[in-house]
Write a structure and sequence with these properties.
Layout lengths: L13 E5 L4 H12 L3 E6 L11 E4 L5 H15 L4 E4 L15 H29 L2 E6 L12 H21 L4 E8 L5 H14 L18 H12 L10 E4 L7
Parallel strand pairs: 1-2, 1-4, 2-3, 4-5, 5-6, 6-7
GO molecular function, one term: oxidoreductase activity
Keywords: Oxidoreductase
Family: Belongs to the short-chain dehydrogenases/reductases (SDR) family.
């Protein structure tokens, strides 16, 4: 799904993608550029490999100060945001439930939940004023399983999904749509590292089903990016407060 599929309504739209330099985030950035949007990506690391014309802001979203600095930089560069993709997140370090420290819980909540809450609070007021905008929160298809050994991650993402539905109701009267995307197993460097670490930790525990999803392959970053593009485009103009699971049929609906 690229610009010619009807998402040309993004021409001239201003977009921010957090975690936008690798994996799913980088694929989302490419799709938005193809659809005509003016895009800024953020990440903790460098900006290597971004398409021509894409802006970059280094940001650590685990702190309120980092989120505020990102919002200030983006508003200064773009003057406002029409599309916000809250993609930054991470599942590690893996721990059994009884080994998760308060610090690990807080880090997961800060990165996978509160970063989106804080950034939305700073960037959606402009959408409300313009009575137009689209927000997408990237969650995880693993949330319904509450799968160990990353309970702190799935719990934070579950909070994100609940918040996403509530924010959608709050912003709907202002013409601002809020949806979520929940990726399943996706072939990214981060995903591979996650599965390797997970495998080592559960070796001594119950066996894990590692067969392919029903559609016969892992997801590609572009599979998730296509879903995000749909949710921020005019093709989903009557869709808000929903969570689109993109997992090849692996997890229960």
């Amino acid at each position: 799904m690229a610009g010619e599929t009807g998402a040309r309504g993004l021409v001239g739209k201003r977009a921010l993608v957090t975690g936008g330099t690798r994996g799913i985030g980088a694929a989302v950035v490419r799709r938005l550029v193809e659809a005509g949007a003016q895009v800024v990506a953020s990440a903790r690391g460098g900006a290597e490999g971004l398409p021509d014309g894409v802006g970059f802001v280094a940001a650590d979203l685990r702190t309120r100060e980092g989120v505020e600095a990102l919002a200030d930089a983006v508003l200064e560069r773009l003057g406002g945001v029409d599309v916000l993709v809250d993609n930054a997140g991470g599942a590690r370090p893996f721990r059994h439930a009884w080994e998760i420290t308060d610090e690990a819980w807080q880090e997961q909540l800060d990165l996978n939940y509160l970063a989106s809450v804080r950034l939305d609070a700073l960037l959606t007021p402009g959408m409300r004023e313009r009575r137009s905008g689209a927000v997408v929160h990237v969650s995880s298809a693993a949330v319904p399983t509450s799968a160990p050994p990353f309970l702190h991650y799935t719990a934070a993402k579950a909070a994100l999904e609940n918040y996403s539905r509530g924010l959608a109701l709050e912003l709907a009267p202002f013409g601002v749509r809020v949806n979520a995307v929940s990726p399943g197993r996706t072939a990214t460097p981060g995903g591979e590292a996650t599965r390797e670490e997970w495998g080592k930790l559960v070796e001594a525990g119950p066996g894990q089903d590692v067969t392919a999803p029903p559609l016969g392959r892992e997801g590609r970053p572009e599979d998730i990016a296509d879903a995000v593009l749909f949710l921020v485009s005019d093709r989903s103009s009557w869709l808000t407060g929903r969570n689109l699971t993109v997992d090849g049929g692996e997890f229960p609906a």
